[in-house]
Amino acid sequence: MQKTGWLIYAQTDANDNQSYIDWFMEEAALQQIDLKLIIRENLSIGILNNKRAVLLDGQPVPLPDFVIVRVLEPLLNLHFEALGVRSFNSAAVSQICNHKAMTHHTVHSLGIPMVDTFFFKKDQLGSTPPMSFPFVMKECTGRSGKQVYFIETEDDWNTALDALGTPDVVIQSCDVQLGRDVRVFIVGKEIIGAVLRKSTSDFRANFKLGGSAEVFPLDGKKTELIHKIIGHFDFGMVGIDFLIDHQGDFLFNEIEDVVGSRILSATTDTNILQKYIAYIKKCLA
């Protein structure tokens, strides 16, 4: 029997990623999976008549075999799982990896090196910075290099404090190779590829922010480090980002739950969505 799935996007993100959505649909069809785009704003989840419910356009609807959740909303993943619908990524991955402090807290337990990182509530921060300049402050729920502030002076600190839009932040040392990081693409327990992101104009290396990218070969030491993380989590498809210290070694940075693959496609001929759909199909068998 053909498996059915929902690919869930927010309307704005769907508009911006139509070619990626089409690619998802094509790969699913090639592997005999009926994948349907669902706009998050058209979904309602909650408790109806003392039962967990999912409504589409205000009406009950047959549930799919699985969902691919492309919004940052761990409760959505959790709700589907409670209804017996497999979620990619899992609710556990979504809950941890969409909160930078929780991610660092979890990954540290695996013995993975990282820069000095402190966890704060916004209202705990005063006029005196908690770390010597320069350092980086990040909103815990930011993504794609946004809500990240490079702090070199007291003016930078005060400006960043005024700009904070969420209550949880991490503050980190930036004693690394600025403007360079490596994103490692993962499907299940497999390393699909790694890309070095570089910027000569920004401390962030994000491709969307104007950085460049090239294939990054992984040696045995780095591969072993990555597999420590992979072994702990039940990943569907994610990107694991590493900073690079002055000796060229990896320092953990973050895990991107709703990861795109623009830079992988730009630097290799790897069909990561074919691999992802094949992994999902295997999980459902």
From TrEMBL:
Keyword Ligase, does the record have it? yes
- UniProt keyword terms in alphabetical order: ATP-binding, Ligase, Nucleotide-binding
**Which SUPFAM superfamilies does the UniProt record give?**
Glutathione synthetase ATP-binding domain-like
- Pfam families attached here? RimK
Any one GO CC term of the record: cytoplasm
> Which GO MF terms does the UniProt record name?
ATP binding; ligase activity, forming carbon-nitrogen bonds; metal ion binding
Q: Where is the ATP-grasp domain?
A: 104-281
Extract the PROSITE patterns matched here: ATP_GRASP
Matches recorded under PANTHER family = BETA-CITRYLGLUTAMATE SYNTHASE B-RELATED, RIBOSOMAL PROTEIN S6 MODIFICATION PROTEIN
Name of this protein: RimK family alpha-L-glutamate ligase
Q: Which organism is it from?
A: Ornithinibacillus sp. 4-3
What high-level taxonomic lineage is stated for the organism?
Answer: Bacteria, Bacillati, Bacillota, Bacilli, Bacillales
